[in-house]
Design goal:
Helix content: 40-55%
CATH class of the largest domain: Alpha Beta
Distance between the termini: 25 Å
Largest sheet: 8 strands, mixed
Radius of gyration: 31 Å
Number of helices: 27
Number of domains: 4
Number of strands: 26
Strand content: 15-25%
Length: 726
């Protein structure tokens, strides 16, 4: 939806997890946690500001019978200026975030298509977590717009903790795709104009682990809290409940807890997290189970997301829940420990905190590392004292709010002692409870967060001057391609070049129509060779270069390689195997190393009729998937099955939403044949190779009488291609 109002158009990306505006399934799994809540509340808060015209929160579209159909809706309006946009990638099934990595370039391409279709003019791209950061970085670079990043959690910190927990690097990489994630995070830090963190500790001890830590500017901007939902426990005691829904939620959650407890009136030790190993709930259960005095003093409630059947969960969640039940059994905590299977986030979670406060209990966050700790704010706002890990965000939270105790959560005995120190001392309990209620409201509000956010964003975008200023990325390749409705794509050697006078005339014609008509080349040359040769021929810099026989796509020279195309053609490409199979054929002579690329194997070969069938038979028998192109009666190129000049052009048309009939493609030899097929307007120049004779008489293919660029001009006149672009 193109905004007609003045103000910022902000695009946020939170790719993984289940995101919808109502009835958030917080804790359903490891990917539906605090980040989901954060991005939704940030989007809502931004949408209330006059200088914000539009906020679009992009996530992944999911069509899966195991989850709600809500996640399959393309556009969900949250408010007048805020919506969720769901882009499909990697099929329809709901998959954990580690499995999304191979599909993110597809996500970028489909988002570009959506942006162009909607006529959007983005001012800022904000990525959340490494996957959303990758997508936002790629799009921001194409638009020449600012890129902002919020990590939520970081790979290097997680890697350290997993290694300390006994996993090997190989095991970690296999399960979490950690090497790739770390590479992405390092690149994000070099591209982000600023990184939003919740605490100073996050900058020093988490981002500080990265090689590129000094590239971005860091903004400490802790998230806010929905104070209207997380009101103090005593409001209910004096009858000031906002909605009947809270009364119903309290009854429901008490009934659920009382199913487990023999003595429900004891103080409640509460923990609430996703079922993740690094959340370290086992240490809390051990701390409780090993101490007879603590078991006598209080009950323990562990909420680990939403589940129906543990056996049907992902391996990580299944392992954590199974270990939790085994510990419960080991310490014989029946009647003392609750592990409910579900909770409603909107009404029941706030009531959980208030129930813990009314019982004079505590909230415990025993995570090995906690980037921020939103649950600590929620508990504090409701009046529940907290015991939290001394690693990460809790350091700042307790420093600001003075509402609890930091503890080394690797030592269950220390967790136990911290909990007991609060429960057995009524004065200390009241002090921490009161401090939490007052100081959370003082230090953590969405209004303050958005004020700081928009102050910085306005500096980056220069919105008041109606222009975008990006310190590291001055290009706006996407903005140009978004406004093109036609593209002229030509082979270079013996098509574009060969007649200097005609070439100059062609360039002048294209310059006159540049606002609406793009110019690209499709060549067998490598990108470096193509750029060098075009420069010597005084050819205007192309908008798009399809090089190495359609295996590589670039925008603005080498500045912007199309990683989406590379990811697309990489599937089922077995370069080493193909080279090994063909090594024994004495009629093939490898071309120079300069001609070989990641997705192209090049040979010299004569006598096509005698040998091509033999090559096809050999590769097919060995189950290789490939594209074979023979040109100029001498050159043999073997490419991935998905690659060719023609396929690259179709991909560009899809990505930038340009109809195929709005392409004019020009060539002279066999490696140009495929791009002439179908809907594009084809031009075969007069000096063509015999391989293209077969195209004579084909609809949409014009055989020019003139040679080289003069033939291209003849084809342009034949189709009236430039006149129809106005």
């Amino acid at each position: 939806m193109k905004s007609t109002k003045k103000g910022l158009n902000l695009l946020m990306f939170s790719v993984h997890g289940l995101i919808r505006s109502e009835n958030i399934e917080m804790g359903r799994d490891a990917d539906t946690g605090g980040q989901v809540k954060y991005v939704l509340e940030l989007a809502r808060a931004l949408g209330k500001r006059e200088n914000v015209a539009r906020v679009d929160l992009f996530t992944r579209m999911i069509r899966d019978r195991t989850v709600s159909s809500d996640y399959a809706v393309e556009k969900e309006e949250i408010s007048e200026k805020v919506r969720i946009v769901r882009i499909p990638c990697g099929g329809g099934k709901y998959i954990r975030k580690e499995l999304i990595w191979p599909h993110l370039d597809e996500y970028v391409d489909k988002t570009l298509k959506f942006i162009k279709r909607e006529g959007m003019e983005p001012d800022l791209f904000h990525g959340h977590y490494a996957d959303g950061g990758y997508v936002a970085k790629m799009l921001a670079s194409l638009f020449g717009a600012p890129f902002v990043f919020t990590g939520h959690s970081l790979g290097r910190n997680k890697l350290q903790k997993l290694l300390e927990g006994g996993m090997t690097e190989a095991e970690i990489d296999k399960k979490f795709r950690m090497k790739h994630r770390l590479e992405v995070e390092e690149k994000i830090l070099t591209a982000a104009q600023f990184v939003i963190t919740s605490t100073g500790q996050e900058i020093k001890h988490q981002y500080g682990l990265y090689d590129n830590k000094n590239y971005p500017q860091y903004i400490i901007n802790p998230p806010g809290l929905e104070i209207e939902r997380f009101f103090p426990y005593y409001d209910e005691q004096i009858g000031e409940i906002r909605e009947e829904s809270y009364r119903q939620a309290k009854v429901a959650i008490l009934n659920e807890l009382n199913r487990f407890f023999m003595q429900p009136d004891k103080p409640l030790i509460l923990a609430l997290s996703r079922p993740e190993k690094r959340k370290n709930v086992g240490a809390l259960i051990q701390a409780y189970g090993e101490n007879q005095e603590l078991r006598a003093l209080a009950n323990l409630a562990i909420f680990l997301g939403i589940r129906k059947d543990i056996a049907q969960l992902e391996e990580n969640e299944r392992t954590v829940l199974t270990d939790t039940l085994l510990l419960m059994d080991k310490f014989d905590l029946y009647g003392k420990m609750a592990i409910p299977k579900k909770h409603d986030f909107t009404f029941e979670v706030p009531e959980l905190y208030r129930i813990a406060a009314e019982s004079q209990g505590v909230f415990v966050n025993p995570a090995l590392v906690e980037p921020f700790g939103l649950t600590l704010l929620e508990a504090g706002a409701c009046g529940t004292p907290i015991v939290a890990t001394n690693d990460g965000g809790p350091i700042d939270i307790i420093g600001n709010c003075e509402n609890g105790v930091l503890v080394d959560v690797s030592d269950p005995a220390k967790i136990c002692q911290a909990i007991k120190s609060i429960i057995i001392d009524p004065e200390l309990w009241r002090k921490y409870s009161s401090n939490g209620i007052n100081n959370v409201r003082k230090h953590y509000s969405w209004d303050a967060h958005v004020d700081r956010y928009l102050e910085k964003v306005t500096q980056l975008t220069g919105k008041k001057a109606h222009k975008v200023v990006s310190p590291r990325e001055s290009s706006r390749v996407a903005k140009r391609l978004m406004h093109l409705n036609r593209l002229v794509i030509s082979d270079i050697d013996n098509t574009l070049t060969g007649d200097t006078k005609a070439l100059n005339e062609l360039m002048e014609n294209l310059r006159q129509h540049r606002p609406n008509v793009g110019f690209g080349v499709a060549t067998g040359r490598t990108i470096d060779s193509a750029l060098d040769y075009l420069g010597k021929q005084n050819v205007d810099p192309p908008d798009i270069i399809i090089s190495s026989v359609g295996t590589e796509i670039y925008y603005e020279g080498v500045k912007y390689p199309d990683t989406g195309w590379a990811a697309h053609i990489r599937q089922k490409w077995q370069k080493s195997k193909i080279k090994q199979l063909l090594a024994g054929l004495d009629f093939l002579r490898p071309q120079k190393d300069d001609f070989e690329r990641e997705f192209k194997i090049s040979y010299l070969m004569e006598n096509k009729d005698r040998y091509l069938t033999q090559i096809h038979q050999l590769l097919t028998e060995n189950r290789c998937q490939y594209t074979l192109i023979y040109s100029h009666e001498a050159y043999l190129d073997i490419l991935p099955q998905r690659a060719s000049k023609g396929k690259a052009i179709r991909y560009i048309g899809y990505k930038w939403n340009i109809p195929m009939e709005n392409f004019l493609v020009c060539g002279d030899s066999g490696n140009d044949e495929e791009m002439m097929k179908g809907d594009p307007r084809g031009v075969v120049v007069g000096n063509y190779s015999p391989e293209l004779e077969k195209l004579k008489g084909k609809r949409g293919v014009y055989f020019a009488k003139m040679n080289y660029a003069a033939g291209i001009l003849e084809g342009i006149r034949h189709y009236q291609f430039l006149q129809s672009s106005k």
